[in-house]
Amino acid sequence: MPVKPQITLLFLLSVFTVLLLLATVIPDEGIPWGKAKIRFATLEDIFSLQPVEYADIHTIIEQNKAAVDSVGRADKIPEEEPWDTVRADAGSLKQRVAKLQFYQNDRSILYGAFRAMEQARQGAQPVRILHYGDSQIEGDRITSFLRNRLQTQFGGMGVGLVPIEQVYDFSFSIEQDNSPDWKRYTLYGNPDTTLEHNRYGALASFCRFSPYTASGAGKKNNPYEEWVHFSPSPYAYSNTRSFEQCRVFYSHNTEPFIAELYVNDALADADMYPVSSSLKSIKWNFDTPVSELTIAFKGTSSPDIYGIALDGRNGVAVDNIPMRGNSGLVFTKMDEKLLRDHYKALNVKVIILQFGGNVVPHIVKSYDYYERLFSQQLQRIRKVLPDVAIIVIGVADMSMKERNRYVSYPNIEKVRDALKQASFSAGAAYWDMFEAMGGRNSMPSWVFAQPPLASTDFVHFTPRGAKIIANMFYNSLMFEYAKYRTTMENTPKETTPEMHADVH
Question: Measuring CA to CA, which residue among 298, 300, 305, 307 is closest to residue 272?
Fold first, then answer.
């Protein structure tokens, strides 16, 4: 029997009436429903003719055009002349740099690092820069560009310190493969709660070719045999594709083990290493730069292996240390002595920390707690390595969907300020990535740029965008280096006693 039109109309009117009543009850911002919100479109949403306005980043793109155009052509970027052959002109950078910030404008906190980097070409070992961060730097994004620029200026080669087993499948700077039975232990993510120690080293992780047990032994009758292989990445800058030395950092092996080095599939060295309870390293130097090698490990029990450094003999080394999902609160959880020993063995002069993105989605009224906790991390680093230069890269803009547009999280500036104040309290420099990329509501401009500079999660940069950010940070660092050079050139040198000695 067909439904009468009057009944259909009455049903529709009833539905619209219920929806209208709900619309008057539910607030404009909606009500939470799990991870989503229930809200009704307003008349303003439906009929508004106002265009959606996002930050204008055209100037940023234009000023960093070389970095944008270099994507996929790593060696096609016009290389700058080293600063020892070109006068560092701070004035030429002044108008296009988002400057580093310092407590009471004391930029001298970077002078020791700049001095070490200048002397790096003639040094006996590389001067090391550690770049810690969250998922924003995964795959050597941002770090790879920065490494290339710094090694161009101050010398050096190689990808730096890497774990035996990578968490992530891709890296711009090196291809890495390993046998399947390595055991990886991290202090971030989902730490193994069965561990009875907190010795993780500079990477906040370590690997073993035998599983960790309560005794730390992991023995079996037949020896374990595991390997790791490194080869050049087609995406890498030329200075990263080869290296002059290889160092393996390890400790706490309860049994001797054998390490074999293969260069281009030929056995180059093999030796047995005794029981140890402190940080040790295996070091191989090469007469000519090497681009491909394999290291095989054999033994009934594995040491804790804290990473493999693939470097030049001198110059600058820059390490990429991503910690997905982390807010940078790991340093106070690490064994202090091991961390100190590892930093000193690596000759660390600069530590860059790039965190905060994982705090932003958790909206609270105050981030005093994060400022306090992050400051504690910086103080721990300062205690472990008193003379290190620390630079904090602040949080990027991040967007959330609001009605018909993407807007910055309302707490971005609060997280940014917490990081800045923590940096200043610990004598660290601060670089405001949020302002550098355009400030509030700038992330959509990066996402909708053609080609895109950020991904559609409105959080992470694309490789193209990562190079722009890296170039902007590098320019900021070089601006400070230029100021340092000017200061040094205008500072009278101390006269030595020999210059005033009387001749008799």
Answer: 298
pLDDT at residue 492 is higher than 70: yes
Average pLDDT score over residue span 37-56 = 59
CB-based contact 326:358 (threshold 8 Å): yes
Query: CB atoms < 10 A from the CB of 108, how many?
Result: 11
Distance of CA 142 to the CA centre of its chain: 7
For 57-89, what is each residue's pLDDT tens digit?
888 888 887 766 654 444 443 344 444 433 444
Beta bridge partners of 224: 299
Q: How far apart are CA 22 and CA 145, in angstroms?
A: 53
CB atoms near residue 473 (< 10 Å) = 24
Write out the H or E segment, with its range, that includes residue 21: helix 5-25
Question: In Å, how far are 59, 89, 289, 304 from 296, measured between CA atoms?
Answer: 50, 49, 20, 15
At residue 68, the pLDDT reads 60
Element (H, E) at 208: strand 205-208
Each residue of 244-259: pLDDT tens digit? 999 999 999 999 999 9
Q: Are residues 298 and 443 both part of a single domain?
A: no
Judge residue 351's burial from the number of C-beta atoms within 10 Å of its C-beta, 0-12 exposed, 13-18 middle, 19 or more buried.
Answer: buried
Same domain, residue pair 178 and 255: yes
**Within this chain, do residues 119 and 201 fall inside the same structural domain, yes or no?**
no
Q: What are the distances in angstroms from CA 376 to CA 333, 433, 458?
A: 11, 22, 30
Q: What is the mean pLDDT of residues 17-35?
A: 61
Residue 101 lies in domain: 60-156+314-491
- Cα torsion 90, 95, 99, 103 to 10°: value is 80
- Euclidean distance between CA atoms 134 and 127, whole angstroms: 23
Is the CB of residue 130 less than 8 Å from the CB of residue 143?
A: no
Containing H/E element for 476?
Answer: helix 463-489
* pLDDT tens figures, 363-377: 999 999 999 999 999
Max avg pLDDT among 4-8, 22-26, 402-406: 402-406
Query: Is 438 a domain residue?
Result: yes
* Residue 82 domain flag: yes
The confidence score (pLDDT) of residue 466 equals: 95
* Among candidate residues 292, 313, 334, the one where a domain is terminated: 313
pLDDT tens-digit readout, 282-291: 999 999 999 9
Q: In the chain, how many domains are there? A: 3
* Domain CATH number, residue 206: 2.60.120.1360
Q: What is the CATH number of the domain that holds 391?
A: 3.40.50.1110
Residue 260, both tokens: 């074999």
Q: Please answer whether residues 384 and 336 qualify as being in contact, where contact means their C-beta atoms are separated by less than 8 angstroms.
A: yes
